[in-house]
Amino acid sequence: MWKILRFFARFYTPGKFVTFIRKTGRKVHFLPKLLTIFYCMQDEDTPKFIKLALMGALGYVILPFDFVPDVFAGFGWLDDAAVVAAALRLAGTYVKPEHREKVRHMFPFFRVHV
Q1: How far apart are the first and last CA of the chain?
Q2: Which GO cellular component term is one of those annotated (predicted)?
């Protein structure tokens, strides 16, 4: 599991994440969850293993090739959404209310569930 996490974490950098958000953010319906992962990962209180898992999840989403290529309309993002959901479940108690509040602040006109 460590090898898989490290593999996908290699594809994450803050710059790549921002570029990804700018290019595909409006197409990704789970963008608030991605940002929640990002804020949790930036928190000093989040353990290193959890940070690695979150980096791996973000790296997987950013990666242009994955199990179901993103170019397939409707189905291409399903595997990415599943990885994001699993990462949030793993992070669990480390996702703080302030992480969620930052995301809600970014999406003031939308009902955001994270």
Answers
A1: 25
A2: endomembrane system
Rounded Cα gap, residues 36 and 114, in angstroms: 7
DSSP state of 95: S
8-state DSSP, 28: -
Surface-to-core class of residue 83, CB atoms within 10 Å of its CB (0-12 exposed, 13-18 middle, 19+ buried): buried
Q: Look at residues 8, 52, 11, 60 and name the one whose alpha carbon lies nearest to residue 34.
A: 60
Sole residue written with tokens 């993002």: 77
Residue written as token pair 């690695």: 52
Model confidence, pTM: 0.76
Residues, the chain: 114
Q: How far is Cα 112 from Cα 16, in angstroms, rounded to an integer?
A: 24
Tens-digit pLDDT profile for residues 60-87: 888 876 656 655 556 667 888 899 999 9
